Request: fold
Amino acid sequence: MAATVNSKEYKHVDLVEVSGRIDSGTAPLLEQALKKITKDGRYRIVVDLSETEFMSSAGLRALIATLKEVRRFNRGDLRIAGMPPKIAKAFELAGFLELFKVFDNTVDAVGSF
Amino acid sequence: MADLFSLTVDSRLEHLGEISDFVGQAARASGLNANQINDVEIAVDEACANVIEHAYHGRADGTIDITCERRGKKFVITIQDFGERFDPRRIAPPKTRVPLAKRNVGGLGLFFMRKLMDKVDFDFSPKHGNRLTMVKKIKSKSNGATPNRR
Reply:
């Protein structure tokens, strides 16, 4: 089970669609996609996890590192859309549910900015 | 029900998906429910990623032996490697209830293993290397809901 990470740039927000399996081997794909966005000076990001089947702590590390980056100087946010229950459990254990704003779908998450 | 499942792979991160599939199938065959299978898959993934990254320091020529076995009402997983000794006492637990600015980016792998499994035991000897044993108590026939207790 591989992973794919697709980024779409909209006027006010970047959408990152993650599918498949994010583990230590594939988390660099997510990390690179997120870093590219912030390096371009864009700090409003939605990460769509609705097609993500597995996420280990390596994926969570990429998300929290980016969350810290985008919230610096209050310049943006990273919001989650479509979180599957299996992944919500990892977020909960890590204490991430209180850090990230989570939406049911990408329309709501993109519209929240 | 004394089936023993075993898998040996070399120490490449590319094998994590295969390891997860293997452990998931063994857990299912041993009667764990969907939530428990998910817990076991995460714990084993974190353990094997640690082996590759810390015991073998990213070298691809190491060996990881994984066995899974049902013993009564317990699902027992052992993960063995021959890399550098792993001392869990050196890993500080993550701060999971502090504001964002004080969060560490790492340390979650071992924390997940301990939270998701009923027992996590590390052992090392020069002869057999690192041997990690993890145990999950089997709650079969359940859809994952917590049973009512008196």
